[in-house]
């Protein structure tokens, strides 16, 4: 049952009733991939929830409102990002104001177009090595955990591209620690009554162990670079040699750690998640897979792709973009109002947390026909031009758009071409496929699949 009210000056958005003290917070964490879309269908493009202790939270889903919020200086990230600071600290993802602008300027050269182009061969070669590791399993008819392998190859790429280090030996440690850390952050995000981080609960202790593992990898990178003093022109060099414009001081180890941790984790996680869901969707849609293979065979004829090939592989990119529509890795984004505002005619109070969900808006029936259907043709140039800009935003938008979006898209495009040129994948019998909405939208139980070799036609 909805609660709504209208005053002469303030039209209150509709939404579900909550329980005393906790509001709707129990519902947030129970099954958000069902709950948020259901609330959108029932109440519309602005849904008011009851937060803890009588506060108002909002889900907004219309592209025009999302554009307004993303581009406005009055909607910083706010309290919704506080739980993730336990993992990544005050890095690019969570910092605000002048400090964020300074850090963004420092990191931006690492993601300039010409530098990205120079990384293309390394990305394709990393994919080539990973694809070769599938060959024995393919010939033996053994299933592989595709999600884990996508994490390994993207971890190798981000280590080499941004930090000029080989982290292959740490891939298993990251694979064990990162899900624990993400689950912990998600738990604290949806349960504000959770016991303090300092208390020795089993979940807190698991998180501390995971964080020590991840910190050890990051601090090793920083310490090794400080020891050698090398300037490789990579992101780590840029951060190490940057000086504050006012004080002339360089970043301390905590600042460096926060930025490196943010980009180290975000730089491989989102691409790996996208690729994992791509293999799942292709296995369910053989006609799409066949068209993808035909394009790759015609353009590449069995050789490795290059950055120069990417404009000739538009369908490959469309497959990737449609995957990002249905399974956006960053499935929910938080903002907080700093002023009173109005969206869709509804009153937004000051200091209200806002939830913006690509998972919801990417299924908005006003902008997507048969929204649950996997159809890469949605991303032809004409189709893209016919939709509002923020009907599709897998990397956020406005000044806070993901700094690595072009890195991730180029990497995903190349890796999809490398693997799909050589293999077709099929589901392993009996393996459950369950999206897990933590900070990213991972396959909860991994993604075990059978690998079939193919040759370019």
List keywords for this structure.
single chain; 457 residues; alpha+beta; four-stranded mixed β-sheet; three-stranded antiparallel β-sheet; 9% strand; globular
Task: Classify the beta-strand content into a percent band.
Answer: 5-15%
What pattern of helices and strands is seen along the backbone? Answer: HHEEHHHHHEHHHHHHHEEEEHHHEEEE
Which class do the helix and strand fractions yield? alpha+beta
Distance between the termini: 58 Å
Q: Which word captures the global form? A: globular
Describe the sheet with the most strands: 4 strands, mixed
Helix fraction?
A: 40-55%
Count the beta strands: 11
Please give the radius of gyration in angstroms.
Answer: 22 Å
Specify the oligomeric state. Answer: single chain
- Output mean pLDDT: 91
Number of helices: 17
Strand order of the largest sheet: 1-2-7-4
Low-confidence stretches: 1-8
């Amino acid at each position: 049952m909805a609660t709504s009210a209208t005053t002469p000056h303030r039209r209150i958005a509709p939404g579900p009733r909550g329980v005393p003290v906790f509001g709707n917070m129990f519902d947030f964490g129970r099954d958000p991939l069902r709950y948020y879309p259901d609330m959108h269908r029932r109440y519309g493009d602005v849904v008011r929830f009851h937060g803890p202790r009588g506060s108002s939270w909002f889900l907004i889903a219309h592209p025009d409102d999302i554009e307004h919020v993303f581009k406005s200086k009055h909607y910083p990230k706010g309290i919704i990002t506080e739980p993730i600071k336990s993992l990544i600290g005050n890095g690019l993802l969570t910092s605000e104001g002048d400090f964020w602008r300074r850090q963004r300027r420092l990191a931006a050269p690492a993601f300039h177009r010409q530098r990205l182009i120079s990384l293309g061969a390394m990305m394709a070669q990393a994919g080539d090595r990973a694809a070769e590791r599938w060959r024995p399993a393919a010939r033996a008819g053994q299933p592989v955990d595709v999600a884990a392998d996508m994490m390994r190859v993207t971890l190798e790429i981000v280590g080499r591209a941004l930090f000029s280090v080989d982290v292959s030996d740490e891939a298993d440690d990251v694979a064990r620690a990162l899900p624990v850390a993400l689950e912990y952050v998600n738990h604290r995000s949806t349960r504000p009554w959770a016991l303090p981080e300092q208390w020795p609960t089993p979940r807190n202790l698991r998180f501390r162990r995971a964080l020590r593992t991840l910190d050890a990898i990051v601090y090793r990178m920083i310490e090794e670079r400080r020891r050698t003093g090398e300037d490789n022109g990579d992101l780590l060099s840029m951060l190490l040699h940057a000086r504050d414009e006012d004080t002339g001081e360089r970043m301390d180890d905590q600042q460096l750690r926060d930025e490196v941790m943010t980009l180290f984790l975000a730089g491989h996680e989102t691409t790996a998640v996208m690729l994992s869901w791509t293999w799942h969707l292709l296995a369910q849609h053989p006609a799409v897979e066949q068209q993808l293979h035909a394009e790759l065979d015609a353009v590449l004829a069995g050789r490795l792709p290059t950055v120069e090939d990417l404009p000739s592989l538009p369908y490959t990119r469309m497959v990737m973009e449609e995957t990002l529509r249905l399974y956006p890795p960053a499935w929910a984004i938080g903002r907080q109002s700093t002023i009173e505002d109005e969206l869709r005619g509804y009153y937004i109070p000051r200091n209200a947390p806002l939830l913006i969900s690509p998972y919801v808006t990417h299924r908005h029936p006003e902008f997507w026909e048969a929204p649950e259907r996997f159809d890469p043709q949605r991303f032809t140039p004409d189709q893209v031009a016919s939709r509002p800009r923020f009907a599709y935003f897998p990397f956020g938008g406005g000044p806070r758009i993901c700094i690595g979006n072009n890195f991730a898209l180029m990497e995903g495009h190349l890796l999809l071409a490398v693997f799909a040129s050589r293999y077709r994948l099929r589901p392993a019998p009996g393996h459950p496929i369950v999206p897990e909405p933590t900070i990213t939208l991972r396959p909860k139980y991994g993604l075990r699949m059978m690998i079939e070799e193919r040759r370019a036609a």
